[in-house]
Amino acid sequence: MVEEALQYVESLAKEKGMYFAVMLDEFQDIIKWGEQTLKRLRTIIQDQKRTCYLLSGSATTVMRNLVYEKRSPFYRQLVEIPVGKLEKNIVKKFLKERFDTVKIKIADPEIDKIATDCEGYPDYIQRLGLELYLVVGPGGSITPSQIERAYEDMILGLDGEFENYFKTFSPTEREILVAISREKSKASEIAREARKQIQNISKELRMLVNYGVIEKPMTGQYRMADPVFSDWLKRRFQGEASS
Predict the structure, then answer these.
(1) Shortest CA distance to 141 belongs to which of 107, 108, 114?
(2) Of 104, 128, 239, 243, whose CB is crowded by the most CB atoms within 10 A?
(3) Quick check: 224 and 214 in contact, CB under 8 A?
(4) 49 φ, ψ (degrees, to nearest 5)
(5) Closest Cα to residue 226, out of 208, 212, 242?
(6) What is the pLDDT of residue 239?
(7) Neighbours of 73 (CB within 10 A)
(8) What is the distance between the alpha carbons of residues 146 and 223, in angstroms, rounded to a whole number?
(9) How many Cβ atoms sit within 10 Å of the Cβ of residue 241?
């Protein structure tokens, strides 16, 4: 079915004398279908002349391996285009322009706080901006306390989404994520918080890094990649045993 759908795009492009782009998002989930699926997809892509493909995924290490791992069917056949978080100065400029548009007053320290809380994630920037707009309204002024309340409301609004996301991890991975959200950054600290031996969590740590859920800012140090998800975990499991 997938093959027929992709072949239809190419045949339609030829029929209409046009070119199309097909984007396959969260491609790391397709990778799980197995090597034969990837090989077949590669064959389809190679044979098409009027369709280009964009394969995107949030698991950065997995996506890089798709391009640079010699055993990958797509080895050196794709162009890697890293898409990172938005730079802080871009976020601040965007926020100021949007608030000016609706005549909401906001001082530079408050803009800086929003940009810091969202850490360059476009989804969170828009969500938090909307929460503030609904609270303040056109012509109003934004205060630090309103940002705090809006941030809490945003996390509350993401509760169901984060809960379902959290359930996709194994029990050991969940314990690791809770430990890191509690600012345990070294493997020994994470293992102690999760009540595990270090050697029993090394595989899970590698997997979580590979899938972009946690990051290694420096050797031997781990942190959550998503600051808002980290804050949700901290609030969700505050004072509870990580189970």
Answers:
(1) 107
(2) 128
(3) yes
(4) -110, -25
(5) 212
(6) 56
(7) 16
(8) 28
(9) 8
Q: Are 180 and 224 in contact (CB under 8 A)?
A: yes
Q: pTM score, two decimals?
A: 0.73
The β-bridge partners of 141 are 105
- Give the chain's length: 243
Helix (H) or strand (E) holding 227: helix 227-236
The answer to whether 33 and 1 have CB atoms below 8 angstroms apart is no
Q: Tell me how many degrees the CA angle 236-239-240 measures, rounded to the nearest 5.
A: 70
* Location of structure tokens 């079915």: 1
Is the CB of residue 114 less than 8 Å from the CB of residue 95? Answer: yes
Q: Which residues of the chain have pLDDT under 70?
A: 239-243
For 2, the token pair is 């997938």
Question: In sequence order, what are the beta bridge partners of 51?
Answer: 20
Ramachandran class of 103: left when φ > 0, alpha when ψ lies in -120 to 50, beta otherwise: left
Alpha helices in 69-222 (DSSP H): 88-101, 108-118, 122-136, 144-157, 159-167, 171-181, 187-194, 202-210
pLDDT of residue 243: 42
CATH code, 169-236: 1.10.10.10
Residue-range domain boundaries for the chain: 2-68, 88-157, 169-236
Tell the CATH topology of 88-157: Helicase, Ruva Protein; domain 3 (1.10.8)
Tokens of residue 131, six digits = 């929460």
